[in-house]
Every structure is written in C-alpha cells, then in structure tokens.
Fold this sequence. Notes:
The protein is mainly alpha-helical. The longest helix is centred in the middle third of the chain and has 36 residues, at 80-115. The chain has one domain. Helix 1 (3-35) runs antiparallel to helix 2 (43-64), helix 2 (43-64) packs parallel to helix 6 and helix 4 (80-115) runs antiparallel to helix 6 (132-163). The mean pLDDT is 90. It has six helices and no strands.
Amino acid sequence: MSILEGLKKVMGFIVVIIMMAMVVVIFLATFGRYTGVFSIPWSEEFARYCMVSMVYLASMLAAAKGAHFCVEIADVILPKTILKIVKVFNIIAVDLFSLFILKQGWGISSKMLNQGKLSPMLELPLGAVYMVIPIGLILMAIYFTIYNIQKIKEISNAQGKEDK
C-alpha cells in the first residue's frame, strides 16, 4: 500500500470519527434541551467546527474518486485530444486555486495563532481550527491531480488502441 492510499484510509477514519462525535454531541444537546435535564452550551460551536472539518477533509476523499469537478457529458461528446486538454486545464485551475487558498489560509491562521485568538465557547485556538481549510484543499488538489493524470493516461491508451 502506498503512502497516498494509507493517507486516504486514515483521512476516511478521521472523517468518520468527527462525524460520530458531532452526531453524539448534537443528540445529547438536543435531548438535554428538550427534556430540560441539562444543556451543552458549546454544542453548536462544536458541531459547526466538526462540519467544516468534515467538508474540507472529505473533499480529498471525493477528489481521489473523481467525484468533484466533473461534467461527465464532456467525456462522451468531446474528442479525446480536446478532452485531455480540458482535463489538463482543469488540473491547473484547481491546483492554482488550492495554492492561493493555502497561501491566504496559512497567513490568516498563522496571524490568529500568533495573536492567541480563541473560539468563544470551546476556547480552541482559532488559527488551528481555520488551518483545516488550507490543509484540506491542498490534499484535495493532490488527489485531484493524481486522479486526473490517471484519467489522461487512460484516454491516451484508449486513443492509441483506436488508432491501430
């Protein structure tokens, strides 16, 4: 198993753990609120951070399967040569966007960490919480690029067989 496959499995596990934690906390908070037995004042903030983390970390998993940025009709109607060009352009656009977000997100997160800003209820360092966005997007870009390079190779192989 390659490092990238291992990272995919670990990230899938992390996303499932985050989802389970969010569901349990929301269930307990809702149960406590409606029964009047107890309240969990930080549950909404916790759920919000869990949801954001899941979205950005799971985007890597979706990109690894080719579930993002996909217009399947293009595979059917475009000639193979043009399809390869479109896929290369798509890789470049996604990677540039991800690098831009990495640079901006890293700067904002670093500034917040240096200033010591904390979340209101959980008192987590906001810089660390926001760091999940650039990390998730750069991981997504890596897996998106790998997936599309494999697809370009498949198109080239299919095109070579058609030419024979």
